[in-house]
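Two records follow; treat each independently.
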Amino acid sequence: MNTVQTREMGRKNAGGSPEQVMEQVTAELKRIGDEVKSAGEKALKEAKGAGELSAETKKAVDEMLIKQGELQARLTDAEQKLARRGTEGVERAKSLGRTVVENDAVKALMEAREGKARMAIKTITSATTDADGSAGDLVQTQRLQGIIAPPERRMTVRDLITPGTTGSNSLEYVRETGFTNNAAIQNGEGTAKAESTMKFDLVTTPVATIAHFVRASKQILDDAAQLSSYIDGRLRYGLAYVEELQLLMGSGTNGNLKGIYTQATAYAAPFTLAGATNIDTLRLALLQAELAEFPATGIVLNPADWTRIELTKTSEGAYLFANPQSIAGPVLWGRPVVGTQAMTVDEFLVGAFKLGAQVFDREDANVMISTEDADNFTKNLVTIRAEERLGLAVYRPEAFIKGDLGNVEAG
């Protein structure tokens, strides 16, 4: 096929869709490539035989190379049309500069060459902008794995108390509240023996319910299984957070547990000690519990107060008993110190926790999901509820001593 025929075919194939053009041009490029190869071999033979190319051969090769370049340009144009087709009908975002110069207020200012103009500019993000000179849709947002959760408090109070279970909605137990010990030596045979008296009270403590719920989209829970387990964990943490406060500080009214601190015996120093420090006060509280026949097994403090004690120094500036390089746990007077923010700053609690109190689980912490709540069904929402039921029995309030360390003045 000569050059004229090739150009005529190119004109005939100029129409059609980009796909058809690409198919035709590709076939033509292959044919031209074969002809260029044949002409090149012919030219090589002529050069070897005669020492130079004939004018006819040189002209044919040049024309084929030109046509090959034209076809390659058409192929590139067809590929670009196909690439643009996916964005047809999509409004391209204007660049910031173009947005400004096309604003009417700015145009008026430029004509008057004085005054001022105000215009609102929408936020442009790299994920949506497709303006000139912008990476636009080529920039994809990177989604990091997991969910960034807030810090969680370490729960400690439950571990101090004897565990138990119950199948009822309340607990009853008999507590000895009075004992007059008149035991004495009998004054001879036949004489009356001494009589002692005892008093008992029936104590009833209710089983409290701790619960809360959240609503969430059913679709997002179906599409993100991780989110479901995350919500489950956070709701359970919410229960544990309130439980810690209730076991320690519950008021005993309006459905609340009656906490250990609420029932504890007020601190009364067995003897006066001049210039008593926080460490001295806690030792005297331990003595008070021991004199009540309930040797304390632990000390509960706010972390701020324990830090204050650890930083106690001698007059020379050395730490009194703490070792900054030690990895040993917090211990004072041989008893473990439990730090929790559930304890109010400047207050303390010491006691025989295992002997003096017991927590009873009626219903372990559980999470339930339901679509049948309010208008959840029609809105494709789910209600996720977490709850637990438990009771607290403080058998011997005198087994616990509570008091003030005297670091913070009352407001």
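The next record belongs to a different protein.
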Amino acid sequence: MTQPDLGRAAAPSLTLSERVAEQLRRKITQGEFAPGQRLSEQALSDDLEISRNTLREVFRVLTKDGLLRHLPNRGVFVAVPSIASIIDIYRVRRLIECQALAQAYPRHPAKKRMREALETALRLRETGDWPGVGTANMAFHMAVVELADSERLNQLFAQVLAELRLAFGMLQDAEFLHAPFVDRNLTILETTEAGAFDKAAALLGDYLIHSERLVLAVYARRLADGSIGEL
């Protein structure tokens, strides 16, 4: 089944390297690259049909964003998030998402995108496609941020989602991570559609606290048993 597209079409004013950087961010968000994975410059430049010089500029941009890491004499790797970065990701999520939902315009079209993402997650749950459920979940939360009508916030949050997907990828149990939250998203959506935006924002705040605790608990266990390490 086709996965929800978390990104919008790139603006024509963007440079080639900016468009490719956005494309790679989307791939990270959709789980196509694993944390710690080494990226082949030759293979990627061939696949993306760009020069290696352009790809190196893309690598510099995504390294600055915290999504990639360059190790001298070893190459470029997908970043491995730290506990501190995960805590910061959730802090940003609470600040952005809850405010966007609390102040949403009742007829905002992003509510329809929230519904579409939730229905996709429900369908994928029935087939056991848990990575797909995770992608649909991220599309749902991207739509929540779109309620704020701020392109800057949309761009910032797209980067946050890419970092979050890296954290999820390290935990290697998509069902455990995403199963508890599909029905909670449904409750948030139904509360939003009923026009109770403050209540929906409070539900979302509780959701994010629960999600953060779950992710950090699993991360800490894997860190302790040595299955997560630095590059």
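Discussion point: The longest strand covers residues 68-71. How would you locate this feature using only the token line?
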